[in-house]
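#lab-general

N.A. 3:47 PM
ok so I finally got the sequence cleaned up, no stray characters, all 569 residues accounted for. can someone with queue access submit it? mine expired

B.Y. 3:52 PM
send it over

N.A. 3:53 PM
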Amino acid sequence: MNMQPVIVRTAGGVPAPPPSSSKMDFNPFESPSMNAQQFPDEKTTHDTLELDMNSSRFVAGDQFYNHEMYGSLRKGGEVNLFTKRFIGLIAGTCSSVISYSALQGCLKPVMQTQLGLTLAEKTAVERLIEMPMLLSFVIGLIADCYPIRGTRRKSYMIIGVLMNAFGVLGLAALTAHFESLEVRERKTPLVVLAIITITIASFGCLITYLCVHTRTIELSQQESLRRRGAIQVSYLIVRRVAGYVATAYTQLVIGNDPTNPKLSVYKSMLVLVAICVAPLPLIMRYWYEETYSLATTMGTRARIFWKVIQQKAVWRTLAFICCYTLFLTIKFFNSMAVVKSWTGITGESVMGQRTALETVIFGVILVWRFFFMNRPWRTFFAIAPFFQIVPWVFLAVFVCRNIMRSVYFYYVVIYLSYIADGVMAFVNLVPLTEIIQEGSEGVTVGLVLTLQRVIGIFVNTNSNGLFKGANFYSLDGAKKDTNDARWDVLVSLLLNYGINALALVGLIFLPNQKLDAQQLRMYGGFTKGATVVIISFVVAFVLYSLSVNIMLLNSAWSCYRIAGGNGCS
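B.Y. 4:20 PM
back already:
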């Protein structure tokens, strides 16, 4: 005799437990399927519990399964980046990467020949141009508060593309004028105007990067726990391909000698404008995004975000990103250059080197997708310090002590160190996906980009000062390959790798995996002083970098070692 499923309810609307027995058998119970719908349909109620007497199968309702913790982090369903629906995002990503990377390459002849700057002035100007990039936080906050025509990413993406094109077009006009003049005839107002146009173009690139990066994280939050991160792999692949195209373009129009470009600079800039604007129709037509009708005042949103930063999950993730990025980006390039010269390498192919870099990073991305995506974060991010330190220690010892100075050995170490670059590509993607809250996506990503830019400016500012490898050895001794110089170079490199090893301290702050991040986000509590510490960190680093760059512009102060000088008499 077949029996119908029995619907068991209690008076309070709470589902009754399954029939008890002297010995509970858990085998008939089924966990929710990963492919099941996240939300029940109209035929399913939260207080209904079915018991099939024939199969003895207990089917739990949604109240037994926390979708916020174990499922997707926002509604919308999983997405595939390589579909017609997201052609606009792909086009925007390509435009963002190519326009910025190609702009950096085309600026080299402008800085070295056309503006007539000294080496110290050139370095200072490059750092000062990066200062407005610290406004990523503000741009993200504005985008979250004031959607334009209902969109918070697409509209600002279009603004960024147009701003970048306008800046590059203005720079093209100025370079055309400079090419018709002699260095001694250039006027300071025109040089200042050129710097302003460069800043506008770079700021436009920043806005586009913020938009595509934030949108990718939003889409990644729609993925289920098991698949969360798949769209990030597609996004990173698009970025790497676009970066390779930008390098190829720079080599085509500039070549290896920025002082003698293959194509006139203003023509290169005009072509770059066309490249920047070309994806605009695709962005306008195929950029899919939810629409928002209500705006939020910046004061309200800032107060909300002030509280969000105090969450332990948020500030610990930010602490990891800062510590990890800071210590891994410090490199004594002078000492590395000496090791390279001692191996006998005189010239390298830029495209060959970039091809090797992209190949290794592409491999790291695939390894993460199929092996590390659902494994502990700390294990994955510990790979970067390992491959940045261990191979280089062997190379430094073997070369500096003249045990083995092989070109092939050098390139093997270089290619292994590229693995660290591949791991670093995930730093501002994977952890952020788990902590970003709906409504504060742009400002959170903007804050991370601001912190990374602050660290980048600090490291670049000190690359010719505190982090200058030549401070530890004699240049003349390095050229003569003396025994004292070998020891001094080796000590400087070991010091560099010791600093890099401090990046492992950042792993203490990082949650171990997705579920750990969600648990810390829900139950970790708040730390009121976290916001003050973050602000103090940014202000201190910015003021220091700004002061050093101002010293570079003053001949009376540029002699100090902290500014890269050899000491003042």
